[in-house]
């Protein structure tokens, strides 16, 4: 069905075009119109109010053939009914208009959707026709920004409409947000990191001019406090630095410095030395020496040596003597139990098995038979009872074997006689066998008398168990014969 107009005021030509369009719609639901046709139709909406809206305003009525448009056709139909929205607004999809949201805009009338603000711009308010470029010191990185962000500390932006801020270069900093430039690091400070909010003080012993990424060491003989502006300060006489030192230090012992701000300190001459931080050197005392330039202190003669006043070398102590304290003018005789060679700083202990019975000895003597010694012995000691030593210079005594015994300081152990025994090592005496038993020479145990024999208190020394008298007999291990044969 075609639209019909009952009002003469409507344009005959435009109404005809609209009727023709909807006639095409009524012929088939599957008809599709091109995007170009849709745009042409939209362009005529203001003149004809897109068919139904204008015709309804003048009392027109319209009917369709009953076919409901679908897809792009339905969209074109809805657009035909939509009012033409002004700039700053867009279609709401229900025949009306709505304001563009913050971060969006409509710069022309008739837009279905508002446009997104480009990165580098923003729009805080609704219903706007344009976005505002971010000011210097501001940026927006994403589309549809409502507001621009301030550049962070350590960053800057010198132009409008930018999407990012630049980091401050090395040697510069910016402590504030939203800035358009960075500041040079002042004298005595530096910054080696790009994008920093502040500069760092030069360490002690260093300094820097303005706007630098690194500090330079103070020259030798000069120093600075942290953050000091150049030039560095001069050290006073008696003190100095190496390049980059935080503070001046005293000339070390054995050196001196008689000029301000100079480096390095000078060595004292041979035979002289100095304390710390001096401008002149002094002579070594007696009993000490200085064999090299810059030596501190004047070296003590080593133990085992001595010297006269002002000497450059020391004399060794004789064998049998030693010097236990450096710098002393006299050598001391070694104690008993100790010996020494030429120029020693301590005496050596006699090794085990040897001894030194006098002071000032150069060699240790061997311990004799039956005696031993430990480390550093002045005398040898006797082997204990139950022990013996049959070697000269022995370090320990040996135990007497079972069946033998000894007293103190013996070379050998004696053997137990028959009828006596020593059951354990280190026996100090041989014990008699009990009645009813006997033992042979060097016995460690006693054995019972066989049946028909007996013994009393181990029997007679040197003899075995005795036979029972005629007509008498005994059991094994008997001390008498009390049984009839």
Low-confidence parts = 1-81
Shape: elongated
Biggest β-sheet: count, sense, barrel?
2 strands, antiparallel
**Distance linking N and C termini:** 167 Å
Share of helix among residues? Answer: under 10%
Instruction: Quickly give the structural class.
Output: mainly beta
If you average the pLDDT, what whole number results? 83
Please give the count of helices. 5
How many DSSP-defined strands? 48
Strands in their spatial order, largest beta sheet:
1-2
CA gyration radius, whole angstroms: 61 Å
Binned strand content? 15-25%
Please give the structural blueprint:
Layout (H helix, E strand, L loop, with lengths): L11 H16 L7 H9 L1 H4 L3 H6 L14 H10 L7 E3 L5 E3 L4 E2 L9 E2 L4 E2 L9 E2 L4 E2 L9 E2 L4 E2 L9 E2 L4 E2 L9 E2 L4 E2 L9 E2 L4 E2 L8 E2 L4 E2 L9 E2 L4 E2 L8 E2 L4 E2 L9 E2 L4 E2 L8 E2 L4 E2 L9 E2 L4 E2 L8 E2 L4 E2 L9 E2 L4 E2 L8 E2 L4 E2 L9 E2 L4 E2 L8 E2 L4 E2 L9 E2 L4 E2 L8 E2 L4 E2 L9 E2 L4 E2 L8 E2 L4 E2 L11 E2 L4 E2 L9 E2 L1
Antiparallel strand pairs: 1-2, 3-4, 5-6, 7-8, 9-10, 11-12, 13-14, 15-16, 17-18, 19-20, 21-22, 23-24, 25-26, 27-28, 29-30, 31-32, 33-34, 35-36, 37-38, 39-40, 41-42, 43-44, 45-46, 47-48
Could you please describe the fold and organization of this structure?
With 485 residues, this protein is mostly beta strands. The chain contains five helices and 48 strands. The radius of gyration is 61 Å and the shape is elongated. It starts with 11 loop residues before the first helix and ends with a strand. Residues 1-81 have low confidence and may be disordered.
């Amino acid at each position: 069905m075609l639209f019909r107009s009952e009002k003469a005021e409507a344009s005959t030509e435009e109404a005809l075009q609209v009727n023709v369009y909807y006639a095409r719609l009524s012929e088939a639901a599957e008809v599709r119109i091109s995007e170009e046709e849709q745009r042409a139709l939209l362009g005529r909406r203001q003149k004809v109010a897109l068919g139904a809206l204008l015709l309804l305003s003048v009392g027109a009525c319209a009917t369709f053939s009953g076919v409901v448009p679908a897809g792009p056709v339905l969209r074109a139909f809805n657009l035909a009914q939509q009012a033409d929205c002004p700039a700053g607004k867009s279609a709401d999809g229900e025949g009306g208009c709505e304001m563009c949201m913050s971060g969006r805009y409509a710069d022309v009338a008739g837009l279905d959707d508002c446009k997104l603000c480009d990165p580098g711009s923003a729009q805080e308010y609704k219903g706007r026709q344009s976005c505002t470029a971010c000011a210097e010191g501001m940026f927006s990185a994403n589309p549809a920004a409502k507001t621009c962000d301030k550049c962070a500390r350590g960053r800057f932006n010198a132009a409008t409409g930018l999407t990012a801020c630049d980091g401050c270069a090395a040697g510069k900093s910016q402590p504030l947000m939203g800035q358009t430039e960075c500041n040079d690091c002042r004298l005595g400070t530096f910054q080696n990191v790009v994008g920093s909010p502040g500069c760092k003080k030069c360490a002690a012993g260093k300094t820097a001019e303005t706007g630098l990424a690194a500090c330079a060491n103070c020259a030798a003989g000069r120093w600075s406090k942290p953050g000091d502006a150049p030039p560095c300060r001069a050290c006073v006489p008696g003190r100095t630095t190496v390049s980059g030192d935080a503070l001046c230090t005293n000339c070390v012992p054995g050196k001196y410095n008689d000029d301000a701000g100079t480096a390095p300190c000078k060595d004292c001459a041979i035979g002289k030395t100095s304390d710390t931080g001096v401008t002149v050197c002094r002579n070594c005392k007696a009993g000490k020496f200085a064999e090299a330039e810059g030596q501190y202190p004047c070296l003590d003669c080593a133990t085992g040596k001595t010297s006269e006043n002002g000497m450059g070398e020391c004399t060794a102590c004789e064998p049998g003597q030693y010097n236990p304290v450096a710098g002393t003018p006299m050598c001391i005789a070694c104690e008993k139990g100790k010996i020494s060679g030429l120029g020693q700083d301590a005496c050596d202990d006699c090794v085990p098995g040897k001894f030194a019975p006098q002071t000032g000895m150069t060699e240790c003597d061997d311990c004799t038979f039956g005696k031993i010694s430990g480390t550093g012995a002045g005398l040898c000691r006797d082997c204990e009872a139950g022990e013996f030593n049959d070697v000269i210079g022995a370090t320990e005594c040996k135990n007497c074997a079972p069946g033998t015994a000894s007293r103190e300081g013996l070379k050998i152990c004696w053997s137990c006689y028959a009828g006596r025994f020593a059951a354990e090592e280190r026996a100090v005496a041989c014990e008699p066998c009990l009645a009813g038993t006997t033992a042979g020479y060097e016995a460690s145990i006693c054995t019972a008398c066989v049946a028909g024999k007996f013994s009393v208190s181990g029997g007679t020394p040197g003899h075995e168990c005795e036979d029972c008298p005629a007509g008498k007999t005994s059991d094994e291990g008997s001390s008498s014969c009390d049984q009839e044969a």
